[in-house]
Write a structure and sequence with these properties.
By secondary structure, this protein is an alpha/beta fold. The chain folds into three domains: 229 residues, 3-Layer(aba) Sandwich (Rossmann fold); 26 residues, no CATH class; 228 residues, 2-Layer Sandwich (Nucleotidyltransferase, domain 5). Helices cover 34% and strands 21% of the residues. The strands form four sheets. Strands 3-4-5-2-8-9-1-11-10 form a nine-stranded mixed sheet. Strands 13, 14, 15, 16, 17, 18 and 19 form a seven-stranded mixed sheet that branches. A three-stranded antiparallel sheet has the order 12-20-21. Strand 14 and strand 15 form a beta hairpin. Helix 4 packs across helix 5. The longest helix is centred in the N-terminal third of the chain and has 17 residues. It is elongated, with a radius of gyration of 28 Å. The chain starts with 7 loop residues before the first helix and ends with a helix.
C-alpha cells in the first residue's frame, strides 16, 4: 500500500499509471486483468491468447474462427489497451457494415469496455468515437460505418502514419494506425482497395496494423481469396491444420490464424472452464447435424470453409415469420403469377399469385406499419392454390383462365418449362401470348444480379438456375423485400421452404439439393408450393431485370441499450490533464 495515496481519486490515478506502465512493456494480459478484472475480460483462454499474439506480431493478419470463441470481444479489448498505450499518437478505425449491425455490436463493445474499467479511463466517448478530441480524430478509435450499397471506396483515404514531433524510444518515429475489420467477409470490395493502399506504408510494423476477423462462410469472397493457403483450401487438414499448423502465410502474403472450437478448453475437457465461450454440448449439437457435414459445423464449429458436399439450410422459419404481412405500395402494383407444373403423379400443380411494385412500407402481421427510408422494389405473395391436373391443353387452359381472372398479364406469368412443363409452356405461348415466361430448371444461372450490391453475377456463384431462384428467394426474404400475406396457408409452404437444403458443389459453387433427394428425405413429398413461390419471384426478376436492394431501414427504433449518452467533455479533459497522458 502506497502511503501517498490519500483518497479514491489518487488511487484511481495510481492504478491507471500502473496500467500504462504494463502496456509500455507489452504486458497486455496483465494490463487487462488490472483494467477490467477477470469477470469482465478473461485473457486466459487459448483462443484469446492466440488472437492477441497474432495481432501483436503481424502487420496484416486475418483471423478465421469458429463461433463463440471470443474473436470479436478479444479484439475489441486489445484495441482499447493498444490505444491506451499511446493515445495521443494512435489512430484506430473499426470497419462496420450495417448489414451485420456491427456498428451496434462491435463499437458498443468498445464503449462498454471503456466504461466498465475499474478506473475511469481517459477519452471522450460517443456512439462512433473514443478519443482525446472529437474534432481531431487522428488520436482515437473511430467507427467507419459503411452503409449497405456503398462500395467502400475512399472510406480510408488519408489514413496513414504521420511523423512524431519526437521519436518514441520503443514505438518509433511515426504515429500508429490500426485498422480492424470485424466480420470482414461482409466488407465491400472498395475497402480492400483502401487496405492495400494503407499497407504501402507498412515498412515499420510498429506503425501499421491491419487485421480482419470472420467466420468462414463464403469461399468466393475477397476475404477467402486473401486468406487462402498457397496450395488452396483443400490443403488444410481439419485436424492437423495446414502443414501441421493452424497458422500460415497466404498466397497474398497475409498471416492467417484459424481457431477451431474442437480444440478449445471447454470442448476438450467437456466442462465449462471459461463461461460465455462455446462448450462441448453446443459443439456436439453442431457435430451431429447432417451427419457431421453441415455448413454450420464447418464454419461455426471448425472455423474452416465448408468442403464440397457440405449441407446447409436455405430458409429459416424466422425469415418466413418476419415476412408475414402486407406491403404498402406506392401507386398501383403489377399482378404476377408463378406456376409449378405437374401433369400426373403425386406432384401438385401449384399457382402462386402476387403483386410487385414499389413499396413505401410494410405492415407485419399483428404489428404496426413500418415506413421505409426510401421506396423499394418488392414482391407480395397473396395466395396459393392447386390447379387440377390433366393433359397439356387442360393444364394450359386452367393456368390462362385463372391468371386472366386475377388480372395477371402474360408477361408476368412465369411457369416451370422443365420436362413435361415444356409442352404447357409452348401451348400457352401459342394460344395466349408469346410473352409468357418459362424457366427450364436444367439451364445455367443467369447474369441478373439478385441484389444491386452483389459483387458477382448468379452464374458465378450458383450451380444452375434452380439454385439461383432458391437463393434469390432467401435473399429477398432476408432483406425484407418479399412479403407473404397472412391469408396464405402456412403448410405446406413453410415446411417446404425450411426443408430445402443446399450443398457446396464443384468449384464450391452453391447448389440446391435435387428435388428427388428432397422427396426421399420428406417421404415422397414434392416441394411444389415452395417451387411455385420461387418461380413467381424469378419471373418478376427476369421481366424487368429487377434487382433487390440491401437498403437500411432506419425507421425502426434502436434497442435502448444502443442509445449511448455522451460523456461530459469538460470532465474528460480535466481527467486527461491529471493523468499526464
Amino acid at each position: 500500500m502506497d502511503s501517498n495515496v490519500k483518497n479514491l481519486k489518487q488511487a484511481d490515478l495510481y492504478i491507471f499509471k500502473y496500467i500504462v506502465r504494463l502496456l509500455g512493456v507489452g504486458e497486455y494480459s496483465a494490463a487487462a486483468l488490472v483494467t477490467w478484472g477477470i469477470h469482465t475480460f478473461d485473457p486466459r483462454p487459448s483462443s484469446v491468447k492466440s488472437i492477441w499474439n497474432e495481432i501483436e506480431v503481424s502487420t496484416k493478419c486475418l483471423i478465421m474462427s469458429a463461433g463463440s470463441v471470443g474473436k470479436s470481444y478479444s479484439a475489441m479489448a486489445w484495441i482499447i489497451l493498444d490505444w491506451l498505450r499511446d493515445p495521443e499518437f494512435t489512430s484506430i478505425k473499426v470497419i462496420s457494415t450495417t448489414a451485420t449491425h456491427a456498428s451496434l455490436n462491435t463499437f458498443s463493445t468498445l464503449v462498454r469496455l471503456h466504461r466498465q474499467a475499474v478506473v475511469k479511463l481517459p477519452g471522450i466517448v460517443t456512439t462512433e468515437y473514443i478519443g482525446l478530441d472529437a474534432k481531431e480524430k487522428k488520436s482515437g478509435i473511430a467507427l467507419v460505418a459503411i452503409p449497405i450499397g456503398d462500395d467502400g471506396r475512399g472510406r480510408l483515404k488519408g489514413f496513414h502514419p504521420d511523423p512524431r514531433p519526437k521519436p518514441h524510444p520503443v514505438l518509433g518515429p511515426s504515429s500508429r494506425i490500426r485498422l480492424a475489420m470485424d466480420e470482414c467477409e461482409d466488407a465491400p470490395i472498395g475497402i480492400w482497395e483502401g487496405v492495400n493502399n494503407i499497407l504501402l506504408t507498412s515498412a515499420d510494423p510498429r506503425s501499421v496494423k491491419v487485421f480482419g476477423l470472420f467466420n468462414p462462410k463464403n469461399p468466393t469472397s475477397p476475404t477467402a481469396k486473401s486468406a487462402m493457403p498457397p496450395e488452396g483450401w483443400d490443403a488444410v487438414d481439419i485436424d492437423k491444420g495446414y502443414r501441421g499448423s493452424n497458422r500460415w502465410v497466404s498466397k497474398e502474403g497475409w498471416n492467417v490464424l484459424r481457431i477451431d472450437a474442437k480444440y478449445t478448453e471447454n470442448v476438450k475437457l467437456k466442462r465449462q472452464i471459461y463461461p460465455g465461450l462455446v462448450d462441448h454440448i453446443g459443439f456436439r449439437q453442431l457435430e451431429l447435424r447432417d451427419g457431421g457435414n453441415s455448413i454450420d459445423y464447418w464454419s461455426q464449429g471448425r472455423g474452416l470453409y465448408p468442403p464440397e458436399g457440405a449441407v446447409g439450410v436455405l430458409v429459416s422459419g424466422k425469415l418466413i415469420n418476419d415476412a408475414r404481412g402486407e406491403f404498402i405500395f406506392v401507386g398501383r402494383p403489377i399482378s404476377a403469377a408463378g406456376v409449378d407444373t405437374a401433369l400426373d403423379g403425386r406432384d401438385n400443380c401449384v399457382l402462386t399469385v402476387g403483386r410487385t411494385g414499389m413499396a413505401s412500407g410494410f405492415t407485419p402481421k399483428n404489428g404496426r406499419p413500418i415506413r421505409f427510408k426510401e421506396p423499394r422494389s418488392v414482391l407480395q405473395i397473396d395466395q396459393q392454390f392447386i390447379l387440377p391436373k390433366g393433359d397439356t391443353k387442360k393444364m394450359g387452359d386452367a393456368i390462362m383462365t385463372n391468371c386472366m381472372k386475377l388480372g395477371v398479364s402474360p408477361e408476368y406469368c412465369c411457369i416451370d418449362s422443365t420436362g413435361n412443363g415444356s409442352g404447357v409452356y409452348s401451348y400457352l405461348r401459342a394460344i395466349w401470348s408469346e410473352d409468357v415466361q418459362g424457366i427450364d430448371f436444367n439451364a445455367k444461372a443467369t447474369e441478373i444480379k439478385i441484389m444491386e450490391q452483389d459483387q458477382y453475377d448468379p452464374v458465378d456463384l450458383y450451380d444452375g438456375i434452380v439454385s439461383e431462384v432458391w437463393f434469390a428467394f432467401a435473399k429477398w426474404l432476408e432483406f425484407g423485400l418479399l412479403g407473404i400475406a397472412p391469408g396464405v396457408r402456412r403448410d405446406p409452404l413453410e415446411s417446404e421452404l425450411t426443408g430445402r437444403r443446399y450443398v457446396f458443389g464443384k468449384g464450391r459453387k452453391l447448389k440446391v439439393e435435387k428435388k428427388d433427394d428432397f422427396k426421399k428425405r420428406m417421404g415422397g413429398k414434392s416441394p411444389d408450393f415452395a417451387d411455385s413461390a420461387t418461380i413467381i419471384l424469378q419471373g418478376v426478376r427476369q421481366r424487368e431485370s429487377i434487382m433487390g436492394t440491401m437498403l437500411d431501414d432506419d425507421s425502426k427504433p434502436l434497442h435502448p441499450s444502443h442509445s449511448i449518452p455522451q460523456h461530459d467533455e469538460t470532465a474528460e479533459v480535466e481527467w486527461l490533464a491529471e493523468t499526464g497522458v
